[in-house]
Design a protein that fits this description.
The structure holds two protein chains of two kinds. By secondary structure, chain A is α/β, with parallel strands linked by helices. In chain A, about 35% of the residues lie in helices and about 15% in strands. Chain A has 21 helices and 18 strands. Chain A has a five-stranded parallel sheet, with helices on both faces. In chain A, helix 5 crosses helix 17. Chain A starts with 12 loop residues before the first helix and ends in a 24-residue tail after the last helix. Helices cover about 20% and strands about 35% of the residues of chain B. Chain B is built from five helices and eleven strands. The longest helix of chain B has 14 residues. The chains are: A alpha/beta, B alpha+beta. At the A-B interface, helix 9 of A face helix 1 and helix 2 of B.
Chain lengths: ~650, ~240
Amino acid sequence: MTTTATGGPASLFPRLEPLLPRVSKPIQYVGGELNSVMKDWDSVEVRWCLSYPDAYEVGLPNQGIAILYEVLNEQDWILAERTYAVWPDLEALMREHGVPQFTLDSHRPVGEFDVFGLSFATELGYTNMLTEIDLAGVPIYAKDRREHDPIVMAGGHAAFNPEPIADFIDAAVLGDGEEIALTISQVIREWKSAGRPGGRDGLLLRLAAGGGVYVPKFYDVDYLPDGRIHRVAPNRAGVPFRVSKHTLMDLDNWPYPKNPLVPLAETVHERYAVEIFRGCTRGCRFCQAGMITRPVRERSIDVIGEMVQRGIEATGLEEVGLLSLSSSDHSEIAEITRQLADRYEGSNVSLSLPSTRVDAFNVDLANELSRNGRRSGLTFAPEGGTERMRKVINKMVSEDDLIRTVATAYSQGWRQVKLYFMCGLPTETDEDVVAIADVAKRVIATGREASGRRDIRCTVSIGGFVPKPHTPFQWAAQCDHETVDSRLGKLRDAVRSDRHYARAIGFRYHDGKPSIIEGLLSRGDRRVGTIIEAVWRDGGRFDGWSEHFSYERWVSCAERGLEGTGVDLDWYTTREREYAEVLPWDHLDAGLDREWLWEDWQDAIDEVEVEDCRWTPCFECGVCPELDTTIQIGPTGRKLLPLTPVAVRGG
Amino acid sequence: MAQISPTQPEQHPPPVQWLRVKYAKRGRARFTSHRDFGRAFERALRRAAVPMAYSSGFSPHPRISYANAAPTGAASEAEYLEIGLAAVCDPDRVREALDAALPLGLDVVEVRVAAPGAWADELTGSRWQVDVPHVPAAVLHDAVNAFLAKDAVPVRRMTKNGMREFDARAAVIALEAEDARLIMTLAHQVPLVRPDDVLAGLRETAPAFAPIDPPILTRLIQGKLRPEAGEITEPGR
């Protein structure tokens, strides 16, 4: 690894360094992580600055940024560096001393790059995006940007409805980033070498023309007198009516990240993560990820095996996570876990399988992965407290399934079961939520019987439901925070009132207010941008952190920002939409057939379930024909590669 | 495959060899906290495939014994730790492999087979270099003279247990001013007097001493202190 950046703008580090002793956790700003890349500025043609707009400790482990960082840097004509949101203590010092937003890799000014790409897993990063753009010395409005400013580009799941940030970004990309990031780079390369014809807009037109990059300013939005959207249409020739998502069709050919960055600072996930498949067709109606990442594409067992070993060697990490939206659904998951457990038996490598379904089979998998270790906790997500509720959300788990599963877990030495539920789901009543207490008590009673012990525990964790674009619930009324809080209060009382169980059941939840703001930002349109800007100008930062989030600030900024529009915060959140209403993201194509989504929404209200198309006939969600993709699943029947460990011994 | 009962953790044998590692925190790596360093070091041990001995228990830890870590933000040429191994290794090869596996700025200077004996007896003093940019030479000399002329210089520092007041003078064995730089030899005492406590003491005794830029601290040497001579002998020498 080179130690200093060469070529291009001078490193900002000498100006940053005197500020660092005055801020908390300065290590997060110094870069130099294992596997970080520094390239000569002048040796490349296209330069990306990638950001996950949250604190370093959250942003560094982000899988999307890690993948793009490697994919881009593998090309000798592209350079990619990273930047994260700085905490308010450093932001104040940077403003005082005129130090602009910097990258961590070579401490270069973000404003000097060709592309500033931000990945949004959640909409609560929007205010941090404005801080980063502003600290970079770049105008926050796309229309005010100058020829030399970077193209500000949004990606990640929130980019499937980028309308609330449409005024701040130059472009958005939907779906898997690996291939499109290289295509965009190629377009920029050609545009630059042709002498930048048409300037900034010339480049944006080239990007938009292919239908793979959304450029909000090339589309006009008209509103009806009642505030609903009348029409979204391109405002110039050569721009398609609809923009499509990108789908990577061969995960085995894209085994990234291979050499993930290993931070010195502490981060939220200290593990090497391997995606074992992408997409999910379980069809849970609340789950945006499951809807927008279709179809299912598995990575083969042998490629997974190779990635795990290489990743451990490249990072020195001890924990390996086998990630996906529903990990136990991989067609060869039993072989993968058994063979990995065999391979690493007796070592200190630990394997984890997050996101598993409620199924006794998953206890077997967890047993394999915990062969050497302690059986501490297992997590399941029934999501709804009653059978009725689970039919509405299409989470096909019966209470008996759940009880059988936990009985198996407790009898095999597991001491704690964590259960995830949601509150505020469509059609939900107080009884649906209070029923969660009965489930938890039955879990404890079963567990005590199965294990013969009293010291077992069950933790109930509750999240507020937020309706998301491109899901069957995109039309649903979001539950107001007063109702959510009242139901959670009743549930808490129901858990606590029974002294036989109260101490064995843990209860974790948040109040319902942040969900309302997340709902505003998720299903908002371009008029919401004013609110985001007002909140940010008023000091709003790090909205995903409860100690920084201010509901009151968002509410008062929404009142002022929406004055005269005829719509308000409730209109965006707790209002149910009609079939005919033009939704802000209707011109953005996730491959899902709008008719199918609507029928699935009606089925939800009627409590009708839908099967998984991996093992039943296609139910025509639209993704495969629309995007010319197919489900890719095994089994392949292949094996992990045998490995011989090497050690430093010597004479 | 052996089925381990979940109530009975695996027992690990004791280390067969202890190695003493001298390492440096240089450049940007000076901003690593002690915890940051610990995680990075454990990963480096794994990447370098050093055959570590592990503690017994439900979550076994590699056998590492730390001593006197320099504070976050301070650079150091002389930090020490010991590692317990499950197999006898060549210290030079461990040094090379570990140095290659550690991130930039964290450098393994030397690895030796550890001599028997407790750390506490061997690491009784440190010499520090403290850069104080833009402080005029006269101001620096006056502050040093005023500080050394005192018998005691009470200073206050926020600790985990709240604000504490202690004497910063007695631990100072030697203090010299150079060009915008201080060289200080400190005895390790309880409570530990750190170079920034001495700087606070200098500000206390000479208000003209008020560096604008944050001082940069570097530990130059650490070992057995002979207070009369003001000399420090590195451990194992």
